[in-house]
Every structure is written in structure tokens, then in C-alpha cells.
Amino acid sequence: MISDTPNDLDRETCYRALQSRDGRFDGRFYTAVISTGIYCRPICPAKTPRIENCLFLPSAGAAHHLGFRPCLRCRPEAAPGSAGWRGTAGTVGRALHLIAEGGLDEAGVDRLAERLGIGSRHLRRLFDRHVGASPVAVAQSHRILFAKRLIDETGLPMADVALAAGFGSIRRFNDVFRRTYGRPPSQLRRNGTMAGTATDITLRLPFTSPYDWAAMLDFLGSRAIPGVESVEDGVYRRSFLLAATPGLVEVRRPPNETHLLATIHTEAVGILAAVVARLRRLFDLDADIAAIDAHLAGSPELAQRIRLRPGIRVPGAWDDFELAVRAILGQQVSVAAATTMAGRLAAAYGPTLPPALGNGTVTRIFPAPAAIATADLTGIGVTGKRAAALAGLGAALSARPDLLAVGETLEEKVERLCRLPGIGPWTANYIAMRMLREPDAFPSADLGLLRALETSAGRPTPSALLRMAEAWRPWRAYAALRLWTQE
Prior knowledge:
It comes from Telmatospirillum siberiense. InterPro entries: Ada-like_dom_sf, Ada_DNA_repair_Zn-bd, AlkA_N, AlkA_N_sf, Alkylbase_DNA_Glycosylase/TA, DNA_glycosylase, HhH-GPD_domain, HhH_base_excis_C. Its cofactor is Zn(2+). It catalyses: Hydrolysis of alkylated DNA, releasing 3-methyladenine, 3-methylguanine, 7-methylguanine and 7-methyladenine. This protein is of the alpha+beta class and 487 residues long. It has a domain at 11-134: 3-Layer(aba) Sandwich (DNA Methylphosphotriester Repair Domain). Helices cover 43% and strands 10% of the residues. The chain contains 21 helices and ten strands. The protein has helices at 11-20, 60-65, 90-100, 109-116, 120-130, 135-153, 158-164, 170-181, 213-222, 272-282, 289-296, 303-308, 320-329, 335-349, 369-373, 384-399, 410-418, 425-434, 447-452, 462-469, 476-484, and strands at 30-33, 38-40, 54-57, 69-70, 196-197, 200-206, 229-232, 235-242, 245-252, 259-265. Helix 13 packs antiparallel against helix 18 (425-434). The longest helix has 19 residues, at 135-153. It is globular, with a radius of gyration of 22 Å.
């Protein structure tokens, strides 16, 4: 039974937000209008319907599941992100990211649940509770809305749009759009779409304000792996290899806009959805940052930091293995030293990016797990013990690529990570923060966190920091970023 309001909002709050077109609620709920059969964002410019005609739903997937059509005026496909699960279930959040990357295109719900370390029945229950629709319904709505974005924002041919959105055939693509929008997809294309070709595609990545873009670039820039990533002149660039296809992506934030612009250079349109999903994870675009900041601002240790710099996000990870390697290299060394070693590793064992894609700074692709599993890393400045840990990690992920993500609760994930050679509590929590998108992960023994809270009375111990951080739950990862960020 789907609730008629998101589980953290009531009908009156939703309706007031709808009446005032309050942008703070954009992406947090959708309004399905019974009298028209259409669902909208809270910011829709259309006349506000009567409250008795409104269903307030936690996700676009829930609206699609109930048979409502997306509004052509407010464009639900352009909403900031999948907010129905925020602050409720990390497992659901990871499942949504996997679905956005095409996790149900080739395999079913049982395989998706296995990748998450839970049973398929439990996964369906979690989706019903937090998203208001089944995983299959969410995947169907995602394909439709992503295809609509490509139609609106690019000049891609309709056959390429269908392929990029995960439709099995152009005929099915046309049939679904006729049922959903009441017209063929070609009639939905607007004049003046953004420039782009099949190998050079620019898309908007919306988010809710505030967003401290400078803080994000500072964090990623100081940790950018030489040859694989770069941050220059306000632009983040990185190479990638998806579905055996190399590519390059460039991300910038236009001034005074509530979206990032991502230019994706690739010859395979079928990987576009996966690229966008990874970028949303990397730049933490689905965070309900206003609610997070409001909660943390109640802490005397964080209040001034939030007042001075609102909107600091937790940077995610482009690739699970890459982030885990980077975390192991960062143990007990400076950020600069770990970055240097990661660059040497990429130069020695990473594939070369095709010259047509490289920009002079980004020239390599990060090595695959199999390459590290058999590599002799002692020649790049890695200690023997750490080299053995990296080789063991590479072998483990070669055998099971989703190994790092298994486990439902944060505690289960940290415990499983700690079983791997070379990974202790600090590394496990760091991986959980950035890779697994666990908002409450917290490396309490981190020296940077302890230094940030040092006073004239001294520096807190890790146990004292943990007690202090109880007030920051369930957003301790965001508190950690606050403490790491220089004023």
C-alpha cells in the first residue's frame, strides 16, 4: 500500500510547498493530480490543484507506478534527484544508483538484491516503504525520464536516445512514449536543444541549493590522480572505461545556476545513463543539503562553519576499486604523498586514453583490479605490506566486483571491509563515506578531525570525538567534511 505522502512530510506541508512553489522541496516529493492524471514537481508553474485532488508521492517512480503521466511544463525528468529515500535507507540509495547505472537492464531484481547483500523480498519491502514503487517500476520510470532529458537537452537521433535510455528497441521506445505522453517522442523535442553529437554530449545535472562548488573542487583537486583526473580553471575532468569503451568527462558549474554541466566524450551512447549516475554520486547531487545543514547547525562545534560556508557536500567516488586503492594508499601518509603514489600506479599499469579523447593533462585510465592483482608495486614507492594489500584487493574484486558494497547496515559494511587485508576501521569508514554513500560513516580516529576540534584545553581523543558526534547523527559524514574543509 503506497502512502499518499512522503514518509518525512505531511499533506499540509506538501500542499503549502506546492502553493508557494517552494524550490527547497523540489525533488523531495511529487504531486500526482487525480483530476488530470499528471504528476508534477512542487515548482510547477501550472495552476495549483485543489488539495483533495492531490496525491503527494516520494518519487517519480511511485507516480509512474500509479499510472500518472509526467508534466510537460515542469519536467519531472529535470528534478534535482531521487529524494524519496534520503535519510532513510542507505541500501535503497545504493540500489537507486545501481538502477540508474542500468542495474536492471540485463538482470532482474534477484541479482540486484544479491549485489546489495540482501534478499529480493526485503529489497521490495524497502522500496515500497521509502520509494513508493517496486524496483522494476523505478527502472521503467528512470528510462522514460532519462530519454525525455536526452530529447530536450541534446540533438541525438531518436534511435540513439532509445539505446542510451536502455530501451530494447526503437519500437518499444515509441510505444512507451505514446502511452506515457500521448504522442511520439519526435513531437516532444523542443527547438534550441543544447549542442551535441553522438561523441560529444552535454547534459545538465540538477541539484538543490546551496552547493559549495569551490569546496568540492578543492577536495577533489587535492586528491586528483595525476593522468586520470584534473581540476583546472573551475573544471573537473576525468577519464573512464565503461563497457570496454574509453571516455572523458568534463564538469563545470555555470554561474548562478542550480545545475552542473557535464560534457561526455564517448563513442558509446549506451553508457550515458551510467556516466550520469556516477557523476551524481561523485558530486553528491542528491543530498538534501538544506536539511543536513539545518541539523548540523545545532551543534556549537559546527554552527559557525555552516553559517560561513553552507552547502558543503560529501564527495563520492567514480569507481569503487579506484576509491578503495586511493584510501589504502592514504593510510598514515599525507594527501599529497598518496596522490603521487596513485599517479605512479596509474602511469605504470593503467591503459592509455586514446589521443582523440585526451586533453594533455588527462591521459590515462585507472588500472582494473586484475592489473593490480598481479602487479609488482614495490617499484612505485609502495611498501611491501601495502602492495600485498592492494594485490589482495585487486584479486578479490576481480573475482567479485560488487564485494565492497555487500551488507545492509553501515556496521555490516564496515565489518566486512575490515576483513580485507590492509583495511582497518579508518579506511573502512572512509570508503563507506565516499564510495558507499553512507551519510553516517565517521572515521573517528582521523587526525584531521581531531586537529580541527583542538582547543586551548587540548585535542579530543577518538572516543571523546565519537561521543561528541552522537549529536550529528545521521549526518556524521557531512560533519566530517565540515571539519576537514578549510575556512
